[in-house]
Amino acid sequence: MSAPSAGTMPCEISFVVNGEQRTVRAHPMERLLDVLRQQLSLTGTKEGCGEGECGACSVLLDGLIVNSCLIPVLQAKGTEVVTIEGLGADDRLHALQKAFLECGGAQCGICTPGMILAATHLLNKNPRPKLQDIREGLAGNLCRCTGYMQIIEAVIAAAHESPTP
Amino acid sequence: MNHEPIIGTAVPRKEGRNKVTGKAQYVDDMVLPNMLYGATVRSQIPRGRIKNIKFSPGINWSEFVVVSAKDIPGKNCISLIMDDQPCLAQEAVNHPEEPILLLAHRDRYVLAKAVEAVSIDYEPLPTVFTIEDSERCSEIIWGSNNTFKTYLVTKGDVDSVWKDAAYIVEGEYTTGAQEQLYIENNGMIASCDAGQGITVWGSLQCPYYVHKALMALCNLTADKVRVVQMETGGAFGGKEEYPSMIAAHAALLAVKSCCPVKMIYDRMEDMVATTKRHPSRTRHRTALSKDGKILGGEIEFIIDGGAYCTLSPVVLSRGTIHAGGSYFWPSVRIRAKAVATNVPPHGAFRGFGAPQSLFALERHMDHIAEVVGLSSVEIRRRNFLKPGQTTTTDQVVREEIDLNKLLDRALELSDYHKKRMSFSQNNTSGATRRGMGIAAFLHGAGFTGSGERYLSSVVGVEGGADGRLRVLVSSTEFGQGTKTVLSQIAAEALGLRYEDVTVAQADTTEVPNSGPTVASRTAMIVGKLVQLAALGIRQTLFSSGTLKESYSPEEFRIACQNYVAAHGPFRSWSHYEEPKGVFWDDEKYRGEAYAAFAWAVYIAEVAVDMVTYSVSVEDFVALQEVGKVLHPVLAQGQIIGGIAQAIGFALYENVAWQNGRMQNGQMTNYIMPTSADLPPIRVYFEELGNVHGAFGAKGIGELPMDGPAPAIVNAVKDALGVNFNSIPLLPEDIFHALAAKGEEAYLKGVK
């Protein structure tokens, strides 16, 4: 965890989170991850390594998958951020959430939010991915439990769920 | 009481919805009012005396809560098997990263600077970093001879076999440290209340280990310590013993500050300071008959325990008992030893010693095959254990296991013979060499020997006001599916719906001690106890006349509701009882080591890139007999996940040590497999059942860690014709070996 730069004053930063306009008061260099978790109480975004290697903190920023531990919050100004909380809810799961549940894509669950968002990004770009596309598309998100196979199965299952593009 | 079976079906994971929606609460997601953040000041040197501690200027130290060993109310140790590991070092340090001081502050961002501003003067002492140096005792760093534990297993008269042996095959095999690398780092929150005592919430496997450690540390009675498991983001053994340390630290800060304190390790602290898999060295000397049958052998198995004892004796025990693998040894002598070095203590990691000794054995079997002139398949066939024969500890194999049949099926599924033939034809040229490798092995389920008797686990099931049942266990969920499988067992036992059963959060004020969540024991041992306790609930309803003999799930629910309305919530308890006729001698290390074994044959196909010398696993067949498969999706997930970790153990995961400290404590330079690195892992089950486990289940969690590394290295041998006896097997190792081989060939040519 890096401390916000000394000397910089907190400022007001506005962006859309899960469809809602939010304004936070934060140091510009504060990590988007910490702002989401601490100020906005969106704790579904997880920290695994703090250096952009594991992908547990993945969120969608203007539709792109990013490691929120590497994004200074100022960079999120004026953008649209989607976290796991914005993808689906308990009573209306997103196709990927449903497929992860059914295929065994979530074990301990700590990589799951980031992994599901990475998969969302993958399917948005490529609604009918081949096996190799999925293996490469998710390679930025580490999972220590599953050996990835059931995650890949879940992505394939969710792709089949969605209407033909 | 006809109902749809629940056992053997893929019911939804109990906490799955919370996990896929991000609602699951891990310890770092929890915030308490008035909470401080804690950090640890650790030793910079591997061994020495602490001379002076200075708090450098430039930090407003009055804002910080500082805890040292002097603040410990009880005994300064993390109570486990031996009480040798201090909670905070006072006079001396014995490994890098040993905790010395604790700091807490309201602002988490100022802690790192403060930790750096504590400067400690040491008088350095000589160090020991390798098994060899530790054995030599040039410097005594622990006890009288650097030895935490030894075991001697003897069977038959091994001294008499050498003179008649047609072949004597020797080999030495080593395995490296491996980081568990759960994606959620270790973390704990502690709070202290004058009346109620200490409560900790954390990421952990074994609530009652933490409970015991906090009682000793803070000099508190059992009712004044409460341990609550939060959702735990992976563990793999890495959250078996170390959480007691973090809980102790957070608790000391909470006691001194009178505020709740959160301690969350960052990735590097977690990697460099907490436990890893024990590095090992195994030496085999095996006598064989003319036709390749094992006559007897000497096995020496040594593990590096690090600076303190922690769980090393138990890890050593499992490794020792598995050292003879799935073969029949008419005679054997196994000498095993856990030694001390000045590195952070090594600890529990899935497989717990068995992956180490089985790597050695399964490489050695291929080595034997080569010397005797048999194939890797045939050498195994001729030596497989059969029902009625005895293991190295003289345990009679009572299960109707047919390892030859298992091997045949694995060969067929992997297309072994055809592929090997084609590879050997094509391996003479081109940029890739391919090979196939086999490992056949076993894994004992539950605690070793008398371990389950000592644990004497207790399980409860509660009937609630809503007519549903709640399972009360200290067995924790950290990905394996504990809550799901135990709910299935209770529901199936009573003919209820899966939805009619839940599992209580593991909170020591709520749940009895069902033992630690380790050793592949939860489904088999705890599961059986859940089954028994559930039957007790029904018995209560029968006896009270609330429920008739034949009932539907709905009728059961109403009966339970009625009973609770009349008498209040009720509970049924079950206690572990040792199966009859089980014999284990702790002194001689002989007898029934495990109530059941899982058996497996794994086959790896590898490709070696002749430009980069990197090895990729191209196909992997995992065939195992695990008793009854309780949940097909979870069982598959356990096997695939274990194999993925074992592929890392074999090929990628290298801990770079310097003066006892891990140098690559980052995910950037400690490499675990990604989705792009793994082959299709094909999982197949045989289900013979098991009289000791719930509905015939055996342990499953650790088994898949044992076989892949030797299967892969055997496959590399098949591809390149070079024997590698150490893991991790990195591209540079292959480069050096091939370069040496090339040089040798060149020199021969010159002659």
Q: Between the first and last Cα atoms of chain B, what is the distance in angstroms? A: 84 Å
- CATH-defined architecture of the largest domain in chain B: 2-Layer Sandwich
Provide the structure class of chain A.
Answer: alpha+beta
Termini gap of chain A: 41 Å
User: What is the CATH fold-level name of the largest domain in chain B?
Assistant: Aldehyde Oxidoreductase, domain 4
Which structural category do the helix and sheet elements of chain B fall into?
A: alpha+beta
User: Compute the gyration radius of chain B: what is it?
Assistant: 27 Å
Biggest sheet of chain B, strands in spatial order? 3-5-1-12-9-10-11
Give the mean pLDDT of chain A: 94
| Beta-strand content of chain B | 15-25%
Helix-strand string of chain A: EEHEEEHHHH
Q: Can you tell me the overall shape of chain B?
A: globular
Q: For the residues shown, what is the average pLDDT of chain B?
A: 96
Q: Which shape of chain A, going by the Cα principal axes? A: globular
Instruction: Note the beta-strand portion of chain A.
Output: 15-25%
User: Got a strand count of chain A?
Assistant: 5
Biggest sheet overview of chain A: 5 strands, mixed
Query: What is the number of strand segments of chain B?
Result: 28
